Amino acid sequence: MGKISRRTMLGATGGLIAGGLLKTQADALTVAPETAGPQVAQADPTKILGAPTSQLGERAPGEQPRRVMGNPAVAASSRTPLEQLRGIITPADLHFERHHAGVPAIDPDRYELLIHGMVDRPMTFSLADLKRFPAESRIGFVECSGNGGAAYSRNAAQDRSPSQIDGLLSTSEWTGVALSTLLREVGLSSDATWLLAEGGDAAVMSRSIPVEKALDDAMIAYGQNGEAIRPAQGYPARLHLPGWEGNAQVKWIRRLEASDRPSMTREETSKYTDPLADGTARQFSLVMDAKSTITFPTFPYQLPDTGWWEIRGLAWSGRGRITRVDITTDGGNTWVPAQLQDTVLSKCATRFRHIWNWDGDPALLMSRATDETGYVQPDLETLMAARGPGTSYHYNSIRPWRVESDGRVFFGPRDGA
Amino acid sequence: MGKISRRTMLGATGGLIAGGLLKTQADALTVAPETAGPQVAQADPTKILGAPTSQLGERAPGEQPRRVMGNPAVAASSRTPLEQLRGIITPADLHFERHHAGVPAIDPDRYELLIHGMVDRPMTFSLADLKRFPAESRIGFVECSGNGGAAYSRNAAQDRSPSQIDGLLSTSEWTGVALSTLLREVGLSSDATWLLAEGGDAAVMSRSIPVEKALDDAMIAYGQNGEAIRPAQGYPARLHLPGWEGNAQVKWIRRLEASDRPSMTREETSKYTDPLADGTARQFSLVMDAKSTITFPTFPYQLPDTGWWEIRGLAWSGRGRITRVDITTDGGNTWVPAQLQDTVLSKCATRFRHIWNWDGDPALLMSRATDETGYVQPDLETLMAARGPGTSYHYNSIRPWRVESDGRVFFGPRDGA
């Protein structure tokens, strides 16, 4: 395993002896049951009775991940600290935020979801109603359509971390009722082809959703990682559209109107479309294409020494499972398949890893995701040729990370000189 | 869908009109960026700018799940509120606790894991060392070996909730380094058959682990649901033994000693064995056999009306995947297969559900889990016949929940008269 540090064993730790002293020492301590949670770190924690049980666990004092904030005066988003996390699940309090008029405070007892329009029986559903239907769960990502915008430039800023570029991505176990169940309940007309989904926030966020998706795997979600969905993610209920852009997964959902045409809301005409160089636009480009990014080593990390390092990252696709991630450490001359790390699920963030022996020379690291449809993540030039410079969404090009000879890592293929 | 309540639609909600008023109203508001988090619930949240982004999300004011505490003067455990949760993931701050001398406060910079004994190269590993090895993740349950003790009686108390009976069960995505990787690094002797695993808490919790398990799927875990493992679950690192009893999954692990025999610690001689009626004992009964429990409807819930209700619960097995859960609503005369709810993983909690039309008569609900080895969860009489009355662990018998004619639900097959 190369440069993993190895220290000489200094002898027995004396742990069993300390254990023998426990009873006396513990008896001498006064422990207040209310003062739960981590204490000040002890030189020898075996010599002092630890903290009692508590109603709610806390993080270790030195482990305090936070969302990455924009300028609060203008930003309406906060980002998941991707490079600080392991595995695929995002703790709910670190799930990214993106809202257009703040996080509304909705009384769950007054909450109602109205389904009307081209249906046999217009109905409203209380939160209790929604929870009484058969439940389903799925582990999947939610990603803002504009995620990765900082990477969509030939001269992108280099002092950006993965979370600053791609942190509008989070993964949760979502639980709720299948939208198809509710649509059967109201008697959706066979002529209906679209649903207008409307949020109960002050932006009254509204998007048109194809009925085909609504009847496939769409969900009215009220659960997130086992508990009630958090206010910033749509409490008490949101639309979850596995693999589709976040903006269409309307949070705080209060209304679904069945129709035979899209409603052409602001969010799908002036926003959330992809204008092309020829004057046309990709509209209703709702599926998030396969993407990946390395999360280690990346800015602002500096590799302390040469030798074996594990390149780690995340790959995800709105079309299904990630089947392959290739890694290059030489700027694209050679690519080798990374290992995909359990748990690998459809339309879900997937961890990859690749062990790399850094020789101390400058290196250009990239990852390239392939999904089960055979779609391959494009490079920046290919994506720019297809989309042109005027787009603001769906930035799924390959992300390059440059390791300099001093071990510092920067975003982008070129040095700053 | 029967009795799901249906209310008449009263007309358009006026949401788009309210949206048109947004800009003026929002401009008039003064929003302090520091005052993030949920506000007081609004009668019409579309009329007021919501809360700004925040570094750490909060739960909704009305959604404040807590661990179920024992008497803090004597208890060294707290329980996951199973009946309040959806899906399979347990939020880290609601993961059950069980410790024998409190939660130690360990300085991660001074943390070391020693591996010695029958190895070629005794070594210590810092936390940074552990994180430099190839990582792996898996979603799986951890369960205290004594979980369910409140159910192991023909006269069990009836005013018990699922969490009070089975709340020493939680499910997380665990991330860490495969123990097999570390054992290759130190050069484990081919004659070694056991490892003594020792914790760095004041109990110096010690258990003997078969090398076969250590080389199979054991992990030194430092991550839990994406972030650093919480202090109460073993920060900075614990042993994770998928599907095995929690006590053997030594938290705050500081030492592994390879040997050719078990160490016969207190926790595997006087404790965590299963004395049998014939005077012998099941020892090293480490695998948690298949189990299930209904989580809804259960005490203290009272069904408000007859009609369609979804029976929901959790099933899990330390031997692999849950392949089947059968449900009875008539005390065992007829059993029907429940639906297993995605995501179904090996050695992981699995959700099941079954839609039931309650006619208002008293009913006795039970669930019976089967795993991929063909093992079937036994009833209480069968388990008692096999284990006798003197055991304190591995209570996996079928849990009966009794619905009375007034809709109240109690644990156990018999009424209190």
Q: What oligomeric assembly is this protein in?
A: homodimer
Percentage of residues in helical conformation of chain A: 10-25%
The largest chain-to-chain contact, stated as pair and per-chain residue counts, equals:
A-B, 131 and 129 residues
Q: Any low-confidence stretches of chain A, pLDDT <50, length ≥5?
A: 1-38
- Structural class by helix and strand composition of chain A: mainly beta
Any overview of this molecule?
Two copies of one chain form a homodimer. Residues 1-38 of chain A have low confidence and may be disordered. Chain A has helices at residues 15-28, 127-132, 162-166, 179-186, 211-216, 380-387, and strands at 68-69, 77-79, 97-98, 112-117, 123-126, 135-143, 169-178, 194-199, 206-210, 219-224, 227-228, 238-240, 253-259, 274-275, 281-282, 291-296, 307-316, 322-328, 336-337, 339-341, 350-358, 363-371, 400-403, 409-411. In chain A, a hairpin with a 5-residue loop joins strand 23 (400-403) and strand 24. The first copy, chain A, has 417 residues and is mainly β. Chain A has two domains: 69-280, Sulfite Oxidase, Chain A, domain 2 (Alpha-Beta Complex), CATH 3.90.420.10; 291-411, Immunoglobulin-like (Sandwich), CATH 2.60.40. A five-stranded mixed beta sheet of chain A has the order 5-4-13-8-9. In chain A, strands 6, 7, 10, 11 and 12 form a five-stranded antiparallel beta sheet that branches. Chain A is globular and about 70 Å long. Chain A is 11% helix and 29% strand. Chains A and B meet through helix 1, strand 4, strand 5, helix 2 and strand 6 of A and helix 1, strand 5, strand 6, strand 7 and strand 11 of B.
